[in-house]
Specification:
Low-confidence stretches: 1-23
Mean pLDDT: 89
Structural class: alpha+beta
Helix content: 40-55%
Number of helices: 13
């Protein structure tokens, strides 16, 4: 069995050359195998050899070990929630594993005992890689610190191998590190108000909308936010951070939106009754029904709010990346909070309520993403319905500087 390797962050490249005789009949002597970062250990056959994984791509918490002839092996795969688990839940974690490591004939099996882990599911299966199939056992679970997958593969799994896998799982131990947080500011009503302006996106990312920036301020979140800012905004330093913030506050996506709506206005959209605009757009533009319906909604929003129709969208994004600027190290915490207060006052002066602000955000999302905002609207409504909803903070709150 070709040894299982991880060649990129969150990408699993697993290959099996299922051949050979597997374990011998001798009595197994167990020894402890420990991940490179010391966060995970597990007991396996002392004769098995460790396979090194690419520790430059977040695999420091992985353990891979195999028989001498590579016919049988166990891999413990870890996804740290604080570093690489952004926006990930158990379903997405399974998808990450199974999208590159096909499993078929999956059948529920009795969940093995894995100390300290919340076992989500366990399966017997046939695993396939490089066109070769073999027997497998897979266990998914998580802890407060990380998502896990324990995978066992062999040419054939008999009762003895089944017992071996159960013992391996039962020896699992996690030594999760302390999660640092360099923030020195308590989350007051003022800071929660700031957080609320981008809480839907924070929730989409599976971050904490009660914390400024959404993540503990530490080296891990610094790496995450620097990568996000570079990929999504082209922000790589203080100068590009300032430039992007200035653009959002002065122009943002509302500028191009206004250009589009003015074009529709010149084409005669404003002279058509609202209920007839979908047909008008279909007759005069090369677009489908869904696009025509979107433009009808957007144009009506533009008629009501004019150039500021997408102000909530742009301002929400500004508030979101201010938290990113702090976590990434481009702004100090005080600088990010000072600017957040400045933008928050602009938001408060421009809208009448959370619903008013969020409607502008949702329309902006639809325009930018060219897709429905239904999912995000649902998240917002769920958050509002909570007994301890963050939106219990008064829209007309008098801001107080506590930093």
């Amino acid at each position: 069995m070709e040894r299982l390797r991880r060649t990129a962050a969150l990408v699993i490249v697993l290959g099996l050359l299922l051949a050979g005789c597997g374990s011998s009949g001798k009595e197994i002597v167990f020894k402890e195998f420990v991940s490179d970062d010391g966060t995970v250990s597990i007991q396996m056959d002392e004769s098995w050899a460790v396979e090194k994984v690419n520790d430059e791509n977040g695999s420091e918490g992985w353990i891979s070990a195999f028989t001498e002839d590579d016919s049988e092996g166990v891999v413990v795969m870890q996804l740290s929630k604080s570093v690489y688990g952004v926006g990930t839940d158990m379903d997405k974690w399974k998808e990450i594993i199974e999208s590159t490591y096909p499993m078929s004939e999956m059948e529920d099996m009795e969940e093995p005992s894995v100390p300290g882990m919340n076992v989500d599911s366990a399966y017997s299966c046939v695993v396939t890689a490089d066109g070769v199939k073999g027997a497998g056992r897979v266990v998914y679970g998580d802890t407060d610190y990380a998502f896990y997958c324990i995978l066992y593969a062999a040419p054939k799994i008999d009762d003895k191998r089944e017992e071996y896998f159960q013992k391996v799982c039962a020896s699992f131990q996690e030594n999760a590190p302390e999660i640092e947080n360099a923030s020195v500011v308590e989350t007051t009503d003022t800071i929660q108000w700031f957080n609320n302006t981008c809480a839907v996106l924070t929730a989409v990312n599976s971050w904490d909308y009660t914390m400024f920036g959404g993540l503990p301020a530490n080296e891990a979140s610094k790496q995450i936010t620097q990568a996000l800012l570079d990929n999504w905004w082209g922000v790589t330093d203080r100068a590009s951070a300032d430039e992007t913030m200035d653009w959002l506050l002065a122009e943002g996506h509302r500028a191009s939106f206004t250009d589009d709506m003015e074009y529709l206005e010149q084409a005669g959209a404003g002279e058509v009754p609202a209920e007839e605009r979908v047909d008008f757009f279909l007759e005069n533009f090369d677009i489908d029904v869904e696009e025509a319906e979107n433009y009808a909604v957007w144009y009506g929003f533009y008629e009501t709010y004019g150039d500021n129709a997408l102000l909530g969208w742009d301002y929400s994004r500004a508030m979101s990346i201010l938290g990113n600027y702090y976590l990434s190290g481009y702004y100090t915490e005080a600088e990010a909070l000072d600017k957040s207060m400045e933008v928050a006052k602009m938001i408060q002066e421009s809208f009448d309520s959370w619903d008013d602000f969020m409607e502008s955000y949702f329309v902006g999302y639809e325009y930018w993403a060219e897709e429905s905002s239904e999912e995000r609207r649902g998240i917002y409504e769920e958050m509002k319905a909570q007994a301890d909803s963050p939106y219990n903070v008064d829209w007309n709150l008098t801001f107080e500087k506590t930093w």
